[in-house]
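Hi R.,

Here's the chain you asked about this morning:
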Amino acid sequence: MLSLQEAIGLDMDAMTSGFGFTPWEADTCPTLEELMAASSTTSSPSSSGGAAADQGHGLVEDEEERRRRQRRKVSNRLSAQRSRARKQQRLEELRGTVARFRAEKRELAAKLHAVARHELAVRRQNARLRTEEAALKRRLGYLLALQRLTLQLRSRRPQPGAGGGPGGAALPPAAATGLASLMTY
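And here is the predicted structure, written out as tokens:
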């Protein structure tokens, strides 16, 4: 398709005089470069054959720009693909970390449950031992009291032969009852 400048440079009378659109015969039809050169000489009479070279150079630059854009598209596509791959890898790493943390959480919960059961058993045993300790302290108190009473009675012992029992004085009935009750614990 002709540009606006090329269309202005064409002879309009020659185009409208015949039946067809082209003002040239089929064998004398100029090439694109010739048309570009002709339009550049009519639009700027001071320029010479350098305009055709500029137009050809412009085509080469356009082609290079198109190739650069294409390379950039491919490069961007590959970069985006690598970015998605890195993102996917990071996501998989995070999923693995989450799975490890969940497994560790289950293990720690099981350990905590076992420790809580052990703590409850220790508390029960501790309570039983405290009750047993209190009973033993009471029994020890009774035994110590009985020992003191026995020592007091022996210290008051009458002379041999004066008591009613063998080898000395007989125990009072309260002391004998206390001694018997301590023996049953």
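One quick note: Residues 1-48 form one domain.

Cheers,
M.
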